[in-house]
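User: Teach me something about this protein's shape.
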Amino acid sequence: MRSGTGLPVSMCELLGRGGIILTGNARAARALHRLYAGTMQAAGAVAWPAPQILDLHSWLAEQWKSLLLTGTEDRLLLNDLQERALWESMIAPAIKR
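Assistant: First, the predicted structure itself:
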């Protein structure tokens, strides 16, 4: 069953209970945010807590930041440039064959 805006009722219920929905990319997360807002407006709500709809990359970054802030982890993640350089150095020998 779906709500009037097309967002599945189960998703609306999950978000209403404070649950988290993870998407594959930021575009999908934004689309679900819009659908949720439409659902809430259709229900007559004027304001509501921001739903926890995140793309996987953002969610992982939040989890890592939480680990750093609590002292559970002290290593830093590679930035995009460092990550690319590492991958290139790892695959370079295979390319030269």
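Now, about its shape. The mean pLDDT is 90. The two ends are 55 Å apart (CA to CA). If you'd like, I can walk through any region in more detail.
User: That's plenty for now, thanks!
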